[in-house]
Give the backbone structure.
Amino acid sequence: MTLAAVDTGLIVDVNEPMLEMLGAERDRVVGHTIREITHPDDWDRNHVLLERAATGTIADYALEKRYRRDDGSVVWAQTSVSVFEDNGEMLAIAHVQDITEQRRAAEQLRWAATHDELTRLPNRSQFTAELTERLVSSPVGTTAVLF
């Protein structure tokens, strides 16, 4: 769990499991911004949703996003955020669940479904899908298949 000020993104409090997930000490997280621990490629989408929640357009939101760990690695998380008012200040509380292993397993299954395990080359299904995509997206007469 993470508690942050909506207007500044400043992290007010964080629980121990979140610190463990980030591989960070409390002073490295509390007093810093959400943006500092969010992967740069995921910040814009996160920021837009947070602003919409702060203005009341949406009550809460959930998204999968990456967090940057202190060691430089990345952890994927399912993040559910609710915005509320406390003594005139808008705060966001985020419930964060590490889904790195689930994403890794899903990626391995996707790869296994489209590649030959022995040769590690794309299988017939992958070849057919890629050929179809190229034939559809290229001008007539510009693609040839040799075998």
Notes: The chain is about 40% helix and 25% strand. The longest helix spans residues 40-54.
